[in-house]
User: Fold this.
Amino acid sequence: MKLLSEPALLSKGAYLQIPVKITLLDEAIIRSNEPEEVLTFKYNDLGNRFIIPWRKIKGKLRRLVLEKQRGLNIESQCALKDDLCMKCPTCFLFGGTGETSSAKVSYNILSRIYGETFISEKEVGDITPYTANAVREQDLTTGQALMSILTVPKETVFRGVVTLKDPTLEMVAVVVDNIKRLSRIGARSVEWGRVQTEIEGYHLSDREDLSIYLDFQNKTKIESKVKKDLKELLSGQNIPSVDEAYKTLDQQVKGLINSLAGGS
Ligand SMILES: [Zn+2]
Assistant:
């Protein structure tokens, strides 16, 4: 299996799987009056675990990829949720629906980034209740109401697998760089939820055969399958800088979209 030389519209059945480890440096909120990002779930085999739903991680990652893209002045008006441009590297990687975007195009883009629920390494132990004064936004005064939130202990480790479908060198460079920039999880993330995100390896295959759920059940051990260093996978190819990767991918994506629209 090799990386694709150019991005493709139709699937070529290549999957780069990237196991990712997220360690909480602060507590993260699991229950509050606001939308939670970390939850608990009772598995038959694994017992009660903290989990982070994939849609939360995908949402964070998409924001990071888009933010960095804006910094490079590529389609800087492209924005979630209704203002997707449908022709930039971020839209190509994460997908979008043409009709509902303000670009009003007739095509949809399927996401090339897949994932799974991130699961805590250990079973749920203590959950700390934390009571704070609710703050009124208008004048920043406190004391109107008490708000109770529950937090996940710091140093909790979550693991999961991120999958990039039909990857090119440039797509890998963009995704890998931004996974490493993921530094916060949890609601009200200004105050809470600092995390460290590490990539544990790379596995290129014609199927999605890695899953942290199977690893935790000792069915498919991820460690036995992955290459630790991306360079081992690339056999001599040079990894472009992230900035170069964005620019090349942008040109390639616009070429594909043009061919889709029947232009030259
Ligand atoms: Zn876009």
About this structure: The longest strand covers residues 142-152. The CA atoms of residues 83 and 102 lie 5 Å apart.
